[in-house]
Design brief:
Largest interface: A-B, 49 and 50 residues
Low-confidence stretches of chain A: 1-13
Strand order of the largest sheet of chain A: 3-4-14-9-10-13
Low-confidence stretches of chain B: none
Strand content of chain B: 5-15%
Number of strands of chain A: 14
Number of domains of chain B: 1
Mean pLDDT of chain A: 95
Largest sheet of chain A: 6 strands, mixed
Oligomer: heterodimer
Number of helices of chain B: 13
Radius of gyration of chain A: 20 Å
CATH architecture of chain B: Alpha-Beta Barrel
Distance between the termini of chain B: 30 Å
Helix content of chain A: 40-55%
Strand content of chain A: 15-25%
Bound molecules: pyridoxal-5'-phosphate
Order of helices and strands of chain A: EEHHEHEHEHEHHEHEHHEHEEEHEHHEH
Number of helices of chain A: 15
Shape of chain A: globular
Helix content of chain B: 40-55%
CATH topology of chain B: TIM Barrel
Number of strands of chain B: 9
CATH class of chain B: Alpha Beta
């Protein structure tokens, strides 16, 4: 319940956020229509209780180990290191997870919450289709009805994942409104949720949305950073000097970064989609582009790409999973706190990194993850060879080979 | 006393049901919206809800989404909405107007600037769909300082305890959302709405009006019977969708677009 006279934007926060109402400094919060308030409050209460229940985390850990295949390796990429001629490059292999990306860490956790709440119907939004696949997967496993909202544009560019979701028994709903990409899919999922709020659990795929999503998705993704920390101490005998992760909504990045936030010696880089280049305006980089202001969309306050009238801008990226005008509110906070440096890699740089990783390491990276590799190669070349960088290989690129082929004028 | 409270208090005393049409500013053009607003007043509207177009209206159904898309395509900004209001006010000093929209355009304008603009152009109330009371303190205070009401929604999913708190921060009128879902969906059954409205009645002296899903004279009569008034949105916006955006619509066409509001007023007056 709310205190009608409090002004939640103002209290001081440390890196421990969010507060009770979901604020990370001035960001985050709950900005949804009244119909959804009881649903997000119920979810916050259920999650608060579940997160203190060791049986809940035991089941989550068990699923991650036996179903997802965790822990994922921390792999030394010798030939990428050689290419950069600087710091040693390690890849955290989230691409080896069941369903091919980090997204499943979150859907496993949220599926347990849905079960705990007795919901019979699951909905999700998806951009690249990775979160849709990861959601359809857990829904199949629990025998729940599953509806995945996906922009018509993304359905075109991620056809293999669309078919995969259908095979898993999900209904993929094509979203024709607005820019027909991820943000519009999220609008449509919110409309569905408001309509079917009694029996429906909405599995949001990234650290965005109203509180408690940015908190719980982060908690479910922190397995990435916790494992990395332990593996680094085992394999390198020290913490890494730098962490690099791509940022769409920011879930793989926060999962990697969060367990290291208090280790001030670990530098962190969030790599956004630079599209055609930040200077062209055709990108999806609300944190690293100049002149972007905070705004409110999809339930939270965060840096947001909008025109001067407050209309949300269409974004551009070669990678559907990064093609989003906002970003999780905790990242906005970490930007302002200067704890994480946010940078961008262009479509072209990401494509080059995609080929480099494939040819030098025998790993086909997701186009999203290729952005992280692209920046890591630049960063490594400016660092010493006794330093270590961990790049979060957030997903595999099987879903992207048609896109890559098309861009290179090859028809499969 | 504010224009909004004056009109709703008088309606309550006279036993007149409030008839509140909603339309999107700039759909299909600012000029047409202004003509429509004057027509709506003639038709018997007590209050007008004027939508601020937003690119991502996630609480609205397809009809109002398309209305917003048309308005944005016509280049309508929040400043334009204020200019429209100023023109309307210069000819109509009496009819309260409530701006209804989403928070992002207001955030980008800045709360201070927004408050100054809406107060200067003669707006009477503000309803921000995605700004719940918890997040409203700053804007609500500023609007209160210039005697503009902040209106909040109560939904079928709102608990009684929460509704009580909402009534404490809400002014002008209380907007009861008749259904679980988005604007323009089908009404839920009248009995459950009646029960909820009488619960709310015990909590507040504010007029309670019902919106979402009211689309014809029949639903107007059913919903007004159990409340202090009704809001008609999607049904009006879909009639407006038939108008030409080029400013060459005849006054006959404008009248046709608002037929439902006249019919509703006639039925309510019987
Ligand atoms: C492989 C992969 N990496 C990254 C992302 C971006 O999401 P986030 O920033 O939440 O990790 C996606 C989204 O679809 C993805 O599929």
């Amino acid at each position: 319940m709310f205190d009608q006279n409090s002004n939640p934007g103002s209290p001081e926060h440390d890196l421990e956020g969010p507060d009770k109402l979901g604020h990370f400094g001035p960001y985050g919060g709950v900005f949804v229509g009244e119909t959804l308030i009881s649903a997000v409050e119920e979810l916050a209460a259920v999650y608060e209780e579940a997160s203190k229940d060791s049986a809940f985390w035991e089941e989550y850990d068990h699923d991650l180990q036996h179903y997802v295949g965790r822990p994922s390796p921390l792999y030394f990429a010798a030939r990428l290191t050689n290419l950069a001629q600087g710091a040693q490059i390690f890849l955290k292999r989230e691409d080896l997870n069941h369903t091919g990306a980090h997204k499943v860490n979150n859907t496993i956790g949220q599926a347990l919450l849905a079960k705990r709440m007795g919901k019979t119907r699951i909905i999700a939004e998806t951009g690249a289709g990775q979160h849709g696949v990861a959601t359809a997967t857990v829904a199949a496993r629990l025998g729940l009805d599953c509806f995945v909202y996906m922009g018509a544009e993304d359905i075109q560019r991620q056809a293999p994942n669309v078919y995969r979701m259908k095979l898993l028994g999900a209904t993929v709903v094509s979203v024709e409104s607005g820019s027909r990409t991820l943000k519009d899919a999220m609008n449509e999922a919110l409309r569905d949720w408001a309509t079917n709020v009694d029996n429906t659990y909405y599995i949001i795929g990234t650290v965005a949305g109203p509180h408690p999503y940015p908190l719980l998705v982060r908690d479910f993704q922190c397995i990435i950073g916790r494992e990395t920390r332990k593996q680094a101490l085992d394999q390198l005998k020290s913490l890494p000097d730098a962490l690099v992760a791509c940022v769409g909504g920011g879930s793989n990045a926060i999962g990697m970064f969060h367990p290291f936030l208090k280790d001030s010696e670990v530098a962190m880089y969030g790599v956004e989609a630079g599209g055609d280049g930040l200077e062209t305006g055709r990108h999806a980089a609300p944190l690293s582009a100049e002149g972007v202001s905070p705004g409110v969309l999809h339930g939270n306050r965060t840096y947001l790409m909008a025109d001067q009238n407050g209309q949300i801008l269409e974004t551009h990226s070669v990678s559907a999973g990064l093609d989003y005008p906002g970003v999780g509110p905790e990242h906005s906070w970490l930007k302002d706190m200067k704890r994480v440096k946010y940078v961008a890699a262009t479509d072209k740089e990401a494509m080059q990194a995609f080929h480099d990783t494939t040819q030098l390491e025998g790993i086909i990276p997701a186009l999203e993850s290729s952005h992280a590799v692209a920046y890591a190669l630049k960063l490594a070349s400016k660092m010493r060879s006794d330093q270590n960088i961990v790049v979060n290989m957030s997903g595999r690129g099987d879903k992207d080979i048609e896109t890559v082929a098309r861009l290179e004028g090859i028809s499969l | 006393m504010s224009r909004l409270r004056e009109v709703s208090d008088k309606a309550l005393t006279d036993g007149r049901k409030l008839l509140i049409p909603y339309l999107v500013a700039g759909d299909p053009s600012l000029g047409v919206t202004e003509k429509l607003m004057h027509q709506l007043v003639q038709d018997g509207a007590d209050i007008i809800e004027l939508g601020i177009p937003f690119s991502d209206p996630s609480s609205d159904g397809p009809v109002i989404q398309l209305g917003a898309e048309r308005a944005i395509a016509a280049g309508t900004s929040l400043i334009d909405v204020c200019d429209l209001m100023r023109r309307f006010r210069s000819k109509n000093p009496a009819t309260p107007v409530v701006l209804m929209g989403y928070l992002n355009p207001i955030e980008l304008m800045g709360y201070e600037e927004f408050t100054k603009n809406v107060s200067e152009c003669g707006v009477d109330g503000v309803l921000v769909v995605d700004m719940p009371p918890t997040e409203s303190f700053d804007l609500r205070q500023r609007l209160q300082d210039v005697d503009i009401d902040t209106i909040f929604l109560v939904a079928p999913t709102t608990s009684v305890e929460r509704a009580k708190l909402i009534t404490q921060v809400c002014s002008g009128y209380l907007y009861y959302v008749s259904l679980k879902g988005v604007t323009g969906a089908a009404l839920s059954d009248a009995n459950s709405i009646r029960t909820r409205v009488s619960q709310l009645r015990a909590l507040t002296k504010l007029p309670i009006v019902i919106g979402f899903g009211i689309k014809d004279v029949d639903s107007v009569l059913r919903m007004s019977e159990i409340s202090d008034g009704v809001i008609i949105g999607s049904a009006l916006v879909s009639a407006i969708a038939k108008l030409s955006p080029h400013g060459d619509e005849t006054s006959k066409e404008i009248e046709t677009a608002t037929q439902l509001i006249r019919d509703a007023r006639d039925a309510l007056n019987v």
